[in-house]
Amino acid sequence: MKKIQNYLHLCLHDNTSSEARVINGFLSFLILFSIAAIPLHFFVGSPEYEWIKGNLFLFDKITVSIFTLEYIFRIWTDKHKVRFLFSWEGIVDFIAIAPFYIEKLGMGGSYYEVFLLLRILRILKFSVMYGKEHEALQRCKAKRHGQLYMLSNETVERIVQKHPIIFLIALIFPLIFASVGLLTILFSHGSSIENWWFAFSILCFILSGTFFYKAWLDYQYDVIYITNYRVILQNHELFGSETNGLTYNSITNVVPSNKGFFRWALGIGNIEIETANRDATLIFQDAPKPHDVVRKISENRILHEERLAD
Q1: Do the domain assignments include residue 170?
Q2: Does pLDDT of 147 surpass 60?
Q3: The domain that contains 92 carries what CATH number?
């Protein structure tokens, strides 16, 4: 039982493990899909759409069951259970499932659909949770971090992901396509070309999944690792990935850029790393606090030069 608990802790609380990324990616898409289904609730009361009521209830039941199990497992596997219950993550997890049970107890009234919108806080939870560098750094003490192999005596000192607002903005397209797909099924029911409309809805769901997967890759796997020996940039696309490891003596200049009022106000910017190699200026886009990141890289470059001088 202890081994199971430790493994579930890895899956649910270790933000940098491959297991957690897959599970949280699935949960995020399920949250997105449940939010996209909210407009369907407003048609349930109409007689012509009565057929959707049972299917919608089944979907909500499955979704809430998964969220409930996740909530229970997160409490069980957390090392500080009481603190988790009253933390941002614990409160958001509870808010995501509470409206369903409240409505079944007859206390939700006509505000059930409004309460369902609170599920969007779970997306916010994932975007905030994955920005906690100190938790991610604990896993970097090993010789391997995901698919990244560490050098001898090398430690990761900072991990930089894209700004959370970029991830949230990228979710707009998958949310729209999922909503359009669900509404298409609703309004095409009983029409003479229902099969064609059904095929269109399937296309919308595929596009929704594709756009979500791309957004998840950009946020979870486009990363800068700043170590005591080098700077490592990872870039994942839908098909394939690229990793560039730059030692500090090969870096000639590091430039932050956050031009524009909104980028300045939100603390979003690009990081350009220039090297001595021909055509080797690497750009990491939409990083949070780019000037702080550049300052850290510059400090490590100075320390590296001092070690070489000694």
Answers
A1: no
A2: no
A3: 1.20.120
Same domain for 125 and 229, yes or no, is no
In a domain, 240, yes or no: yes
Collect all residues with Cβ–Cβ distance below 8 Å to 183 and sequence separation of at least 6: 39, 40
Report pLDDT for 39: 81
212-254 pLDDT per residue, tens? 999 888 888 888 888 888 888 888 777 777 788 888 888 888 9
40-55 in b/e form (b: 16+ CB < 10 A) is bbebeeeeebeebeee
Residue where a domain terminates, one of 71, 103, 129: 129
Sign of CA dihedral 215, 150, 251, 255: positive
Tell me the three state secondary structure of residue 257.
strand
**Cα 129 from Cα 153, distance rounded (Å):** 28
Write down which residue in 80, 104, 129 finishes a domain.
129
As given in the structure block, the two tokens for residue 221 are 């796997």
DSSP for residue 117? G
CATH number at residue 280: 2.30.29.30
Could you give the number of structural domains in the chain? 2
Does 157 reside within a domain?
A: no
Distance CA(173)–CA(210), nearest Å, equals: 10
The reported pTM is 0.77
Give a yes or no: residue 140 inside a domain: no
Token output for 97: 């499932």
Burial status of residue 274 (CB atoms within 10 A of its CB: 0-12, 13-18, 19 or more) = middle
The terminus-to-terminus CA distance of the chain in angstroms comes to 52
Cβ-contact 160, 293 below 8 angstroms: yes
Domain carrying residue 102: 1-129
pLDDT digits (tens, 9 = 90+) for 262-287: 888 888 999 999 887 756 788 898 98
